[in-house]
Design brief:
The complex is a heterotrimer of chains A (244), B (252) and C (244).
Chain A (H helix, E strand, L loop, with lengths): L1 E4 L10 E4 L5 E6 L5 H9 L7 E5 L2 E2 L7 E4 L3 H4 L6 H12 L3 H14 L15 H14 L4 E5 L7 H18 L3 E4 L3 H7 L2 E6 L4 E7 L8 H6 L1 H16 L1
Chain B lengths: L2 H25 L11 H14 L1 H33 L1 H14 L7 H9 L3 H25 L3 H9 L4 H39 L4 H10 L3 H29 L1 H4 L1
Chain C lengths: L4 H19 L5 H4 L2 H13 L2 H33 L1 H15 L7 H8 L3 H25 L3 H9 L4 H38 L4 H11 L3 H30 L1
Classes of the chains: A alpha/beta (244), B mainly alpha (252), C mainly alpha (244).
Chain lengths: 244, 252, 244
């Protein structure tokens, strides 16, 4: 898959061009205002680039589709509060018209995969932030997407929950060979999760550098973060962000 | 007894005290019986009416007209509201005109309705329906406009059809606002029911009050007011209860 | 609301259609009249001052009722807001009273005061009382407890406490109630006038209908809508000026 996008209204960014390999975990970082979210929304088909195009499997992206799932940062607004957890996760299967028995089975499987089985009949407002975000992830997975786009999904969570979700996401991504585009402002998180880290600068947004993260998987919170390569890359990233 | 029970008893006692003072004020001649009936006399009238059945027939007549008008109002308001709230074109063409009619007092259409439909029950239902639809319409429009952006985008990503989006996302999301609109609408419907009853001398609680004034029967007048109060209270409670059941997810 | 051509297309087209149908005698004029005649009636109503006179009478009743409601509502609201016991104990009586539509008292006030300003003003006052009372109680209840603690620490007398802490803190919220009440005032006064009281715009409306001066009836209607808009705008303006 290739992504090449161009200028948006206020010249948010110019000449951004990069490819996302199938099965890879791409993290995008940059200081606020560099257009990370706009970029993600263009990839999702929610916004159209003013020049250039987003290509997905050889075809241009013109509108949002089922095969591109999105996980929003504000989980309270992205879940349906009048539906239970299992009903929320079942949403995409319902829309696809799957039979009830199949829905039930798949939802159950997804809930157990994301640690939500106990909360199945609860309403989103009864859950903590971390749990609600898990529901969003479970729902995205239910779509059977080809790519998952995540807009700072762990940004509103506390550090401990964030680390737990990072590891859960990592495991899921490995197991299902997911293609993920993950936006974050947390440089360590980007290095921890990503196979590739793309650094965006602002005013106008453009790709400063694309870093390949050659760290072993599965990654562990303590060991990986103390790995010399990790630390070196961290320094590099900090420097790049500071300059731009 | 428990704190809650003793508080409840205190409230009941206070209410009784109010009635007692009122009774004393009338009995002692402090206020004229012509203008202020004694509560006991009013109660007597109510019981008499309950016994001979007229209480139920008049309340029933009022209730019937109220619900006919209100249900019609809600149905029409939801249809228009859903159209305007979910179709850009409908909104742009119709919303400004609606904004103009919004501040018009609902009762102002009574003379027009009387012109076309005379002093009839049909006129009453038409007025109730017209007046009561505005709060629901406006709250529905507001609710639809405030569906969170993320939800709309999730629906777009899932490639939901417009119909499905309206039914499974927009309406539930707007339901909180719509419920508030329903409450206001029901109160308004009751007011219009009473007004049109009085205007057209239609059988009902409102008319009874009106007639009692004409014949200076203050006990009847106060009995009518009390009946109306109880009736109004009960239907509001009924709405609140149904709201609570439908919106269980909010309390959770 | 965008002042685009689209907002006026529908009403303009309808008015034009109406005028044409009437001019070509396609519709029975008897109950429907036509825009040009209505306009003419309106002009004459304005010219001879009857519209203004009626408007003033209606607004007089509104102001009378609203002021009374504010005085009673705010004082009672402060008392009930500060004393939980009093509020709880009086709740059944108040809820019962509130359930009676204000208009139902019209025969009673007519009996007590006869035709004229007082009977109408009192009905308006009754209708306006409830939103003001309820919001005042809520406003008092929701005063930041720390403010009350400070007042207690400074050993303020109850009167001082009310004047210096309670009143300023609850003002914004109470104003919301007053705004709602102001909306009711116009509706209620017009309703009383249509029903029985021979004064004001409502009376003008119903008398025109009864004497089959259809053009004048519609003219009153349009004028009423305009007055309604004006009152709404004034309330919103006052709201902004006082609160900010």
């Amino acid at each position: 898959m290739a992504f090449g996008t161009g200028t948006a209204r206020h010249v948010v960014f110019e000449d951004i061009s990069f490819d996302v390999e199938l099965g890879s975990f791409v993290c995008i970082v940059g200081s606020s205002g560099c257009g990370k979210t706009t970029l993600l929304r263009q990839i999702a088909g929610l916004q159209k680039p003013t020049s250039g195009a987003v290509m997905f499997n050889g075809a241009p992206v013109t509108r949002p589709t089922q095969d591109k799932a999105i996980v929003f940062q504000d989980y309270s607004k992205a879940l349906l509060p009048w539906r239970t957890v299992e009903s929320n996760v079942a949403l995409s299967l319902e829309v696809a018209g799957a039979p009830a028995s199949q829905i039930k089975a798949e939802v159950e499987a997804l809930l157990s995969k994301t640690g939500l089985s106990a909360a199945a009949s609860k309403y989103p407002t009864q859950l903590s932030g971390g749990m609600q975000q898990r529901v969003q992830i479970a729902r995205s997975l239910a779509q059977r997407p080809k790519i998952i786009l995540m807009d700072e999904p762990f940004g509103a969570l506390d550090a401990i929950t964030r680390q737990a979700l990072q590891d859960e996401l990592q495991a899921l991504a490995r197991e299902r060979r997911m293609t993920v585009v993950f936006i974050t402002h947390d440089l360590e998180e980007a290095l921890y999760l990503g196979d590739t880290v793309i650094v965006l600068a602002s005013n106008p947004g453009r790709i400063v550098k694309q870093i390949d993260v050659n760290l072993e998987r599965p990654r562990r919170q303590l060991e990986t973060r103390e790995n010399p390569t990790f630390l070196r890359l961290r320094h590099e990233l900090h420097g790049l962000i500071e300059k731009h | 007894m428990s704190a809650a029970a003793s508080r409840g008893a205190a409230a009941a006692l206070f209410t009784l005290l109010v009635f007692a003072l009122w009774q004393v004020a009338v009995d002692s001649g402090l206020v004229s019986r012509v203008f202020v009936a004694a509560p006991l006399s009013a109660f007597e009238v109510m019981i008499e009416r309950a016994a001979n059945g007229s209480l139920w027939t008049t309340t029933g007549a009022t209730a019937l007209r109220l619900f006919a008008g209100w249900v019609a109002a809600v149905a029409i308001a939801m249809m228009i509201g859903t159209a305007i709230g979910n179709f850009r074109a409908a909104y742009e063409y119709l919303a400004p005109t609606l904004e103009f009619f919004r501040p018009l007092p609902a009762s102002a259409v009574i003379p027009v309705a009387v012109l076309f439909l005379g002093l009839t029950a049909k006129m009453s239902t038409a007025v109730i329906a017209f007046g009561a639809l505005w709060p629901v319409l406006l709250s529905a429009m507001h609710g639809f406009a405030n569906v969170p952006r993320e939800l709309r985008e999730v629906a777009a990503t899932l490639e939901m059809s417009r119909a499905r989006y309206i039914l499974t996302v927009a309406i539930p999301s707007a339901s909180v606002d719509i419920m508030a609109g329903l409450r206001i609408s029901l109160s308004l419907a009751l007011i219009l029911t009473v007004v049109t009853e009085m205007q057209a001398s239609l059988p009902g609680i409102g008319y009874e009050i009106f007639a009692a004034q004409r014949t200076f029967r203050s006990a009847d007048l106060y009995a009518g007011l009390m009946t109306l109060g109880i009736f109004g209270f009960l239907i509001n409670q009924a709405l609140l209860l149904s709201e609570r059941r439908l919106m269980r997810w909010r309390a959770a | 609301m965008r002042a685009s051509w689209r907002s006026v297309v529908v009403p303009a087209a309808l008015l034009l259609l109406w005028e044409l149908c009437a001019a070509l005698r396609l519709v029975d004029l008897e109950f429907i009249s036509r825009p040009s005649h209505i306009f003419a009636a309106g002009i004459s109503g304005l010219a001879d001052g009857s519209f203004f006179h009626a408007t003033w009478q209606t607004l007089e009743a509104c102001l009378f009722g609203l002021s009374l409601a504010i005085v009673v509502g705010v004082s009672l609201g402060i008392f009930l807001g500060l004393s939980t016991i009093a509020e709880f104990v009086s709740r059944p009586s108040l809820e019962g009273l509130r359930s009676i539509p204000s208009i139902a008292f019209a025969p009673l006030t007519l009996l007590l005061f006869g035709f004229g300003l007082p009977m109408e003003g009192l009905i308006v006052a009754y209708a306006c009382l409830w939103p003001i009372l309820i919001t005042t109680i809520a406003a008092v209840r929701n005063i930041e407890p720390r403010l009350m603690e400070v007042a207690a620490a400074l050993e303020m007398s109850p009167v001082e406490r009310i004047r210096k802490v309670v009143l300023p803190a609850m003002l914004p919220r109470v104003l919301v109630g007053v705004r709602t009440a102001a909306g009711f005032a116009l509706v209620v006064s017009v309703t009383v006038e249509i029903l029985i009281n021979p004064r004001g715009l409502g009376y003008g409306l119903i008398v025109s209908q009864q004497s089959l001066r259809i053009d004048m009836m519609y003219a009153y209607l349009v004028w009423l809508a305009a007055i309604g808009l004006l009152v709404n705008a004034l309330v919103r303006l006052a709201d902004r000026e006082v609160v900010t």
